[in-house]
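Posting this for the archive.
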Amino acid sequence: MDAPWDEALTPKKPEACAKNVTGIDFTKMKACFDGPRGDELLKEASAAFTKAFPKPTFMPQISVDGNVVSADYDDVKKALCKDGSDAPVC
């Protein structure tokens, strides 16, 4: 079964998120996702990931300002704060 965006598990959730959280027109977003521009963006994202992590890697793979960081919460927080985040946790 092909269920993009987990629609089979969470019907209408992507549409509600687009509308209520981001204010994005879901119909336009889905058309982009399903069309040639969606394919282009996926290729660009894949190329960016491969450039950042050229060797085999495990998920999640996290980087902060181009530096690979352990997925441990404290390590991520420390790296983000050191990089200048103004999040309250810093």
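The chain has a mean pLDDT of 84. The helical segments are 13-22, 26-34, 36-52, 73-82.
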